[in-house]
Amino acid sequence: MGQATDIRVPEDALCAALRERGQRVTPQRLAIARVVRELDTHVTAEQVLTAVSDRLPGVSLPTVYATLELLEELGSVRRVSAGGGAVLYDPRTDAHHHVVCRRCGAVVDLEAEIDDAQVITAAREAGFVPDRADTVVHGVCAACLPTD
Ligand SMILES: [Zn+2]
Ligand SMILES: [Zn+2]
């Protein structure tokens, strides 16, 4: 019984956030936001497009990119640069870190307390206005390690 409410709450928040910014609430935007939440992992725009096309045909990749960018501005997704030029979108928006496998590209959340203040300060000293700092650890995942 309570489940319908659970699903609707983030959607209502998203609608409110869109309207607050003078952005239209469109079926595409809602479907893309829902898909990212349901996939519940780090996804590429292409993966979002595939999943969203199942339920809402006619959505284009540029629309997915633009919507993901908008959702990031609204704080509904976080962009993760996993190296190698791949940009992933993360439905988890609290501060956390990632480890990336350089063989298969697997991206896993890292639970670690890291003091970002020093990095932020260094970025300021380099003349940047930092948005946030996050750490990406690069390496090889267990599945990709040679077994011999
Ligand atoms: Zn791997
Ligand atoms: Zn993550």
Q: Percentage of helical residues? A: 40-55%
Global mean pLDDT = 88
Q: Compute the number of strand runs.
A: 5
Q: How large a portion of the residues is in β-strands, by DSSP E?
A: 5-15%
State the shape. Answer: globular
Unreliable segments (pLDDT under 50, ≥5 consecutive)?
1-8
CATH topology of the largest domain: Arc Repressor Mutant, subunit A
CATH superfamily of the largest domain: Winged helix-like DNA-binding domain superfamily/Winged helix DNA-binding domain
What's the CATH class of the largest domain, please?
A: Mainly Alpha
Termini separation comes to 52 Å
- Walk across the major sheet and give the strand order: 4-3-5
Taking all Cα atoms into account, the compactness measure Rg is 17 Å
Please tell me about this protein's structure.
- The protein is of the alpha+beta class and 148 residues long.
- The protein folds into two domains: 1-92, Winged helix-like DNA-binding domain superfamily/Winged helix DNA-binding domain (Arc Repressor Mutant, subunit A, Orthogonal Bundle), CATH 1.10.10.10; 95-148, 2-Layer Sandwich (Dna Ligase, domain 1).
- Helix content is 43%, strand content 14%.
- Strands 4-3-5 form a three-stranded mixed beta sheet, with no helix packed on it.
- Helix 2 (27-39) packs across helix 3 (45-55), helix 2 (27-39) packs across helix 4 and helix 3 packs across helix 4 (61-73).
- The longest helix has 18 residues, at 3-20.
- Residues 1-8 have low confidence and may be disordered.
- Bound molecules: zinc ion (ZN) (2 copies).
- One zinc ion is lined by residues 42, 90, 92, 96, 98, 109.
